[in-house]
Input
Amino acid sequence: MNTILAIETSTLACSVALQSNNQLWEEYKDAPRQHTQLLPQMIASLMHQAQLSWSQLEAIAFGQGPGSFTGLRIAAAMAQGMSWAHDIPVLKVSSFAALAHRAMRHALAHDDLVDKKEMIVGVARDAHMNHLYWGTYRCSPTRLPVPLQSDRLLPAEEKISPMPHHCIAVGDAWAMRDKFPSLKSISPVACYAHLLPSARDIIALADDLLARNETTTPQHALPVYLHTATAWQKRS
Output
């Protein structure tokens, strides 16, 4: 098990996790517009609890989106700063893959899998401006999420490819089906509209990336916006 620090701020939640010596520490707070203030405190707290120095970290992982424009910039900037300051490689993890992983964990914990060994997870989040963030993943109790296609930004009215009846739904857009009519045709076996991506799930995916030596340098630790900067400026 690798020693990894992970941060996830692509949504309203601010989440940090630290893995070392077969142990996992995590702090998770629903804290809109407080990510910048909370992250340094949360990171310091976990490093203290684990009694680790920066030189003992093997990698820093962050949720690269898609998600909140500001939240993604905060996570990327924090990962870049720590990487440069302490000469630690960075791991970029899809926030949607992390959310799919969390949905699978939740399904297992609540016996929602209906005896299926493998499930398709449909991740749908409100992208605002009449758009939807959409991703589909193949998940199982013993394997990490595998993307069936790239995470996408879709107009609210655009049709979504048919999903199997035994799929799991996760993300806030599932609670807004009047806004996203394309989701009405899907009948998942379980729906977790309230779940948000967490740093704990970033760790799970980052561990696999580090084992495959898929690290990057701080200058390439960039978020995935999907929305263009111009579109976000027009929103104001």
